[in-house]
Design goal:
Shape: globular
CATH architecture: Alpha-Beta Barrel
Strand content: 15-25%
Number of helices: 10
CATH topology: TIM Barrel
CATH superfamily: EAL domain
Order of helices and strands: HEEEHHEHHEHEHEHEHEEH
CATH class: Alpha Beta
Largest sheet: 8 strands, mixed, barrel
Structural class: alpha/beta
Distance between the termini: 20 Å
Strand order of the largest sheet: 1-2-4-5-6-7-8-9
Helix content: 25-40%
């Protein structure tokens, strides 16, 4: 379901994501998905999947999800449209038999109607009885207020809620949100701080808070057996990351019909200088 409005215009980002690339993505009816398993550290069994958006142009070129969503924040109706398509497709094509987590942007929640009973994004969550929502970590006080409003509404609906990317480089931790969630997702940034005694004490405090309040600890970005052993030592309940790549599941819609070339310059699609491993960890 989409909400009509004037066609938004987007300026090219510093990373090289052009107006025409966003227009290309907005013109497609569906959004690809990748399902990454959440693995129990004790049993090694899959305890659930996280659904992530995977964008491609009509020519099949992958586009980083973080850049897409950053650009879409210039137009909240466009953000809502993509968020709705992405969640609809993620739910429709997800594995069954284990819980599914989807990410939900607080700005898209507001654009879809907020806590209104007819918010289509909330209606999607009723399509399965085992869907959880990951609230995307915020970078401003205003965003944290939106996250808290969304959390309260999800609580009324009885939806399990996780806070994503705790301790990530650009995140802001809201105590009110942290106190109200069910699951704490520990950002992969902590792996780079494992030898920092100050960071270690902070993580231990967060983990202790989680255990004392009955929250599950989910460690992200696990790539090696050494990472897994470290996560276990920190009290992880579940882990996810590239170590489990053979168990990733992907779904891509059928290619949309090609469109005539745009007359204006479209600009390049430029990936930042990161490893292929880092590329696959783009969130959303």
């Amino acid at each position: 379901m989409t909400r009509a409005g004037p066609r938004p215009r987007f300026a090219a980002s510093p990373e090289g994501l052009a107006d025409a690339v966003i227009a290309d993505i907005l013109s497609q009816p569906s959004v690809g998905a990748e399902y990454q398993p959440l693995v129990d550290v004790v049993t090694g069994q899959i305890a659930g999947y996280e659904a992530l958006s995977r964008f491609r142009t009509r020519m099949g070129e992958p586009v980083p999800p973080d850049r897409v969503f950053k650009a879409l924040h210039q137009s909240l109706p466009a953000l809502y449209d993509i968020e709705f398509r992405a969640k609809r497709d993620q739910i429709a094509h997800a594995p069954t038999g284990v819980p599914l987590f989807v990410n939900l942007d607080p700005d898209a929640f507001v654009a879809g109607g907020g806590d209104s009973p007819d918010n289509p994004l909330m209606a999607l969550l009723s399509l399965r009885n085992d869907i959880g929502v990951e609230i995307i970590e915020n970078s401003s006080v205003a965003d944290s207020r939106l996250s808290l409003a969304m959390l309260r509404h999800l609580r009324v609906l009885g939806v399990r809620v996780a806070l994503d990317d705790i301790g990530g480089g650009e995140s802001l931790l809201s105590f009110a949100v942290l106190a109200g969630i069910d699951d704490m997702k520990i950002a992969r940034d902590w792996l780079d701080r494992r030898d920092d005694p100050v960071a270690q004490r902070l993580l231990s405090a967060l983990a202790g808070f989680g255990r004392d309040t009955g929250k599950r600890l989910i460690f992200e970005g696990i790539e090696t057996e050494a990472d897994l052993a470290w996560a276990r030592s920190q009290g992880a309940d579940l882990v996810q990351g590239f170590l489990y790549r053979p168990q990733f599941i992907t779904w891509q819609p059928e290619p949309a019909p090609a469109q005539p070339p745009h007359r204006r310059g479209t600009g390049p699609i430029v990936r930042s200088r990161r490893s292929e491993l880092a590329w696959t960890h783009e969130r959303r």
